Amino acid sequence: MKGIRTRLIVYFGLILLLIVLVLEGLFYWAVHTYYFGTATEALVTRSTTFTNFINKYATGYRLKDKARYILENASNEEYAKIEVLDTSGKVILNSYGFQTGEVIQTPDVLDALKGMTGIHVGKSPMTRERVIAVSTPLTFETEYSGVLRYTISAEPLYQAVNQIALYGAGVGAGVVFFAFALSLIIAKRIVDPIEDLTKAATQMATGNFSARAAKRYDDEVGTLAETFNYMAAEIGKNEKLKNDFISSVSHELRTPLTSIKGWSETLISGGLDEPEETMLGLEVISKETDRLISLVEELLDFSKFQSGEMKLSLERMDLREVLDDVHLQFAIRSQDKRVDLQMEIPSSPLAVMGDFNRLMQVFVNLLDNAFKFTPRGGTISVTAAESARRLIISVTDTGEGIDEGDLPHITGKFYKGRSKQSGSGLGLAICKEIIEFHGGRLFVNSILGQGTTITVDLPVAEAMSTPESAEKG
pLDDT, tens digit, for every residue of 24-48? Predict the structure, then answer.
């Protein structure tokens, strides 16, 4: 059986068929028990009552005389066949007035000869007709002298029971047919949404990430459709980011490579006769090579973060050393670009458990971004302070700012927003990862046209215990 629809129909149908068959069996048993029980009970009542009458008022009669007495006093409306048997089971007289001589050894007769009321439902030994027979013992003085046997045909009862059972079977067949039709509808309602999901997944497998699954019902499959559509939307976004990243990185790689190739060919064709031009070309090649190295390092860092291989060498350090080095590194650039670089660092140590090189990488990246987006004559300020066992370092520029729509995604991987500046779109994402590895947080606040503030929040390192303090403790 292939497909959920087929399995649902078959399993549901088989279960209902089994239930109907069990109910039909119980119904047939109940009807059979009622009809035969009622008939048997009525026959037992008449037989017992009449036998008690005979045994009480004809107690001095011998069996043959008692047989004639019985037939003379039997009701004319009696529909059961009455037989009087001797102790050997031989019929000595029946209600038709015949002495058939037939010997009956059915269980009811044997029970009656033991003094009990015997009941037998089965076939007549002579006619093979299905009968109900009730036998009661006849007494002569204090001994059992024979058996009084009432017999009725069970064929009308069987016909009535079978007729009712046939009606029940018809109703059961109707129920099974209705159940199969209902299972078809239920299976369709269950399977159709799954088929929609399958079609949407197939389209996604072929690269169509705009495919969506319809949510037909507010159930588990509907929730699955919503989740699938959310996943498709995220994959679509990631696909767009990937394409943007490939385009951006290709552009970032091509630009310096073009400069390097151009100056290399110029130097080769022109020889080294003009020292100034040669020096200019070498400086450009060196500068563009640095750009390529920086880009490759960002990609390697990103790969390490993705694979979980990034390791930090944490040590207790003074964050002022990092900020002083960064200030020194960007001092010449601020003069060249005529951007006012201001540093407000407290005189007391800013203790932190950190990786010097990685924290250096973070603040170099933040300052590099600030210089990229701050125009000539602008201001970049770096402030650091300790508050409530946290180190708060802010890098604020008076640059072009970030669009409000880009702000929630600016620390995402490969996200460049509406910026036209060069870059892989990984810088802030890597900074955020490094800060979070240090147990800190990174926030970005910006107003378009006014500037941007990036805040780094790091935990203060616990004080180192000295031998003296340990002794005091």
Answer: 999 999 999 999 999 999 999 988 9
Using one digit for the tens of pLDDT, what is the confidence trace for 54-87? 888 877 788 888 888 888 877 777 788 889 998 8
Burial-class residue 47 by CB neighbours within 10 Å (0-12, 13-18, 19+): buried
**Contact in structure between 393 and 323 (CB atoms under 8 Å):** yes
Q: How far apart are CA 147 and CA 135, in angstroms?
A: 6
Residue type, 336: D
Does residue 283 carry a pLDDT above 70?
yes
Do residues 63 and 84 lie in contact, with contact meaning Cβ atoms separated by under 8 Å? yes
pTM: 0.50
Confirm if 246 and 266 have CB atoms less than 8 A apart: no
Q: How many CB atoms lie within 10 A of CB 229?
A: 17
Tell me the C-alpha distance between 344 and 458, whole Å. 17
What's residue 418's pLDDT? 62
Q: Please report which confidence band the pLDDT of residue 416 belongs to, taking 50, 70 and 90 as the band edges.
A: low
363-367 average pLDDT score: 92
Q: Could you tell me the sign of the dihedral formed by the alpha carbons of 321, 326, 328, 331, in that order?
A: negative
8 Å CB contact between 423 and 446: no
Is 113 within 8 Å of 87 (Cβ atoms)?
A: yes
Q: What distances in angstroms separate CA 22 from CA 13, 29, 308, 316, 473, one per listed residue?
A: 14, 11, 62, 80, 83
Separation in Å, CA 468 to CA 194, 235, 405, 465, 472: 72, 59, 56, 8, 6
List phi, psi (to 5°) of 380: -125, 125
Interatomic CA distance for residues 389 and 106, integer angstroms: 105
Structure tokens at 187: 């299976």
